[in-house]
Amino acid sequence: MALPKKKLQGLVAATVTPMTETGEINFCVISQYVDYLVNEQGVKNIFVNGSTGEGLSLSVPERRQLAEEWVTKGQNKMDHVIIHVGALSLKDSQELAQHAAEIGADGIAVIAPFFFKPVNKDALIAFLKEVAAAAPEVPFYYYHIPALTGVKIRAEELLDGIQDEIPTFQGLKFSDVDLLDFGQCVDQNSQRQFDLLFGVDEQLLSALAMGATGAVGSTYNYLGKKTNQMLEAFERQDLSLALNYQLYIQRFMNYVIKLGLGVAQTKTIITLVSGIQMGPPRLPLQKASKEFTLNAEAKLKSLESHCFH
C-alpha cells in the first residue's frame, strides 16, 4: 500500500467547478484557480468533485476529465489532490476510483449512497470496501455528511475496526455539528495515524480543541488566509487571537447564511474575491441573485477594516 507523500493536515479547499453561462465545465480557468489558492489563500490541498464541486450533478466522463485537470494543473503546486469518487452506483464509484488511481490522485473520498441507503454499518462498509478495492494503492477517506445523505450511522461507529476491512483507510471528512461523535473519533483512534478532517468551517476552532488534524471546506477558497492565521494562533496557544479569527469568519458566514448560502452563492463569493469567473451552478440549482452578490461584497469590504488587536 502506498503511503501519503506527506500527512494531510491543515486546510483543504473544497473546490467549486467553474462553469460557463450555459452550464458546461470551464476547464480553462483551473490553472489560474490553482495559483490563486496557493498564492493568495495559502491553501495547498484540495478536495475535488464533492458537494461544493457539484460532483453528483456531473456525468462520470465530466468527473474524470475534471479530476485529470486538477491533478495535472496541481502538479508540483498542490500537496494533496483528493478526488471524491462517491456515487449512487457502485460501478460508477469503482470506475472513478480506478481512474483517480491511474492519474495519480493523492487520495479518494466516498460519500454514503443516499437514494438506496445503507441501513447499517455493515452495509455501508461493504459498499466502501468495494470502492476502495478499485484503487488499492490510494489512501481512502470516508466523507461523513448526514445532513445531505440522510445516512445517520455515527462516524465513531464506522471507524471502529474499519482498517480491518479497508486497509487503505486514511481518514474522515466529518461534515456534521456533532462534536461528541467527532471527539470520540479522535479519542478512540488516538493510536492510529488517521487524518480527522473537520468540515463545518464556522465551527473549526471547536474541532481543533477536540483534536482535528485538519479541515475541508468551501470557505477556504476565499477565507483560507484568515483561517490559516487562526490555525497559526491556535498552534501558538494564543487562543484569544484564534477566537478573534473564528469570530471574524463567523460574522461573514452568519451574514451570508441568513441571505441563503449554497453552491451558487459560494461560486459568487469566490468570483468576487479571486476575480476568476466561476459561473453559475448546474440545474436544478439556481444562480445567485444580484442582491446577494452586492450584499456579500459589501460585507466582505466592511469586515476587511476590522482590527484584531
TrEMBL record:
Q: Gene of origin?
A: NPL
Annotated localization:
Cytoplasm
Q: Binding of pyruvate: at which residues?
A: 52, 216
Quote the catalytic residue positions. Answer: 143 (proton donor/acceptor), 173 (schiff-base intermediate with substrate)
Q: Which family would the database say this protein is a member of?
A: Belongs to the DapA family. NanA subfamily.
Annotated Gene Ontology cellular component terms: cytoplasm
Q: What is this protein called?
A: N-acetylneuraminate lyase
Q: Name one GO molecular function term.
A: identical protein binding
Pathway the protein contributes to:
Amino-sugar metabolism; N-acetylneuraminate degradation
**Signal peptide as annotated in the record:** none
Subcellular location, principal: cytoplasm
Return the EC number.
4.1.3.3
- Please describe the quaternary structure of this protein: Homotetramer.
Q: Which PANTHER family does its entry note?
A: DIHYDRODIPICOLINATE SYNTHASE, N-ACETYLNEURAMINATE LYASE
List the catalysed reactions: aceneuramate = aldehydo-N-acetyl-D-mannosamine + pyruvate
Q: Does the keyword Lyase apply?
A: yes
Q: Which Pfam families match?
A: DHDPS (PF00701)
Keywords carried by this UniProt record: Carbohydrate metabolism, Cytoplasm, Lyase, Schiff base
Q: Biological process GO terms, please? A: N-acetylneuraminate catabolic process
